[in-house]
Amino acid sequence: MPDKHAVLSASSSHRWLQCPPSALLCAKAGDTTSEFAIQGTDAHSLCEYKLKTALGQKSADPTENLTYFNEEMAECADMYVQYVMEQLAVVKETCKDPLVLVEQRLDFSRWVPQGFGTGDCVIVADGVLSITDMKFGVGILVEAKRNPQLMCYALGALDLFDGIYDIKQVSMTIFQPRRENISTYTIPKEELLSWADDTLKPTAELAAQGKGEFKAGEHCRFCNVKATCRKRAEYNLELARYDFAMPSTLGDEEIEAILSKADALVSWASDVKEYALQQAVSGKEWHDWKLVEGRSNRRYVNENAVAETVEKAGYDPYEHKVLGITAMTKLLGKTKFEDMLSGFIEKPQGKPTLVPMSDKRPAIHTAANDFKEDN
Fold first, then answer.
1. What is the value of pTM for the model shown?
2. DSSP one-letter code for 228
């Protein structure tokens, strides 16, 4: 599976389309590898192997070389393969010779300078071009609608196969098994090409030159320079105009304005603190801040020796409790867990949480609302 990343990659397009100058700044800052990124890479390697095997293509089993392989990852890969094979079966009903590409390098440099990415699964057929992207992450729900990463992949596929196949529409799917999320968006080919010419290409040209306007927003989340970005600081410090007055002195509109930025403000402050800490650890001396040793808790230097010593004294050194649901699922496997323990599982009502109206979860009724309805 290719691991090279373009400066204007499809995976980062959501950010640089919103904030063109961020592309070159992030490239200069360099990539950072996280545990979650490695998990995602492992999951994609496993999916590639399982899907190629299902398609009758030769592929080496990567399992023993995967850092984060577990039963959940294997089940997610199986679900992904099942979904793709089901979609392929549907395509074959109207097209006898569809082309299936797995982990295919897709070049969309016709619109984006040196732009390329890797499509997890591309099904090319008369009528519809299908792009499926597997997301192993659980933290962020990813939607397919107007998803620029998938749209860039689709453009790369169109550049290769439009004309060989009579493609009229492009279907793009996010398959996110750990969030039970299958999101599909279909767009006419001509509309996609218009977006590429009118929006993608001119913005990419600005980004490639480090030009355009900085813009802060939720797309800052994966930016390599988010901690030191002045535009992001200005965006978050707008709250300072409220002079941190007590909530009782604020009007409803002011409170809602603060709520709309509260999460971003907390995230930004945390990023700045972490950046400053890492700079200090690397040797930087701040004027009004110093590096000290934080609090720590006592711990055993050798748990086995502790257990052996306590047992010899006639005591039981171990805690005995039932494994949590996640640990138990890993122990038994998802299928066996459901068969054996589904009758013993309940999901209590979640704690009320205030979210924007754009959130897809239904609103809950409060006692005050029920009273209003009764009257």
1. 0.75
2. T
